[in-house]
Amino acid sequence: MLYAWLMRWRPRPFLRWAGQFDHVLHAGTGARQICCFGVNPHVVWEMTSRCNLQCIHCHASGGVESPTELTTAEGKAAIDKIAASGIRTFVFSGGEPLLREDLFELIAYAHARRLKVFLATNGTLITEEVAKRLSRFKVGVVIGLDGMSPATHDAIRGVHGAYDAVMAGIANCVAAGSTCI
């Protein structure tokens, strides 16, 4: 509860979610590593606070663009510093990173700096074309799935149809040969 309070989760939806334990078992059965991106040192850049969903557990909560978000040039400078530090794994996150118009330019830049790139996304915006572009750069795609049924997932994500959209995004990644985690 303390963590939920610190993260500013909305109390009622969080308590309703926390009271259901079947989703915890489903989520844990697929884990293969200690964390989503392995045990190696990695950087996660929350590149935008914008999002197309209203998740009960998220600090962005379908937020708008923040005036403090890094520009494309500032993002490239940060990527240069990370690459120079010896860290090899870089994660683009958000909000929803696919809402950044410069995302693929920054992915290409990180890839050119020999970083292993991941995208942490809600998966709802992964069209066939987006999946193909991610596959071209060998981007590991980390998609959040919060329930094994549309009702559970949509209740947690705060948008009706989110489950169907994420399942389509996953299918598009698989068809394009992207690595989904």
Question: How would you portray this structure in words?
Answer:
The chain has about 180 residues and is an alpha/beta fold. The chain has a single domain, classed as TIM Barrel (Alpha-Beta Barrel). The protein is about 40% helix and about 10% strand. The protein has helices at about 1-5, 10-20, 20-30, 70-85, 105-110, 130-135, 150-155, 160-175, and strands spanning about 40-45, 90-95, 115-120, 140-145, 180. The protein has a five-stranded parallel sheet with strand order 1-2-3-4-5, with helices on one face. Strand 3, helix 6 (about 130-135) and strand 4 (about 140-145) form a beta-alpha-beta unit. Helix 4 (about 70-85) packs parallel to helix 5 and helix 6 (about 130-135) crosses helix 8. The longest helix is centred in the C-terminal third of the chain and has 15 residues, at about 160-175. The two termini are about 30 Å apart.
Q: What is the gist of this entry?
A:
By secondary structure, this protein is an alpha/beta fold. It is 42% helix and 12% strand.
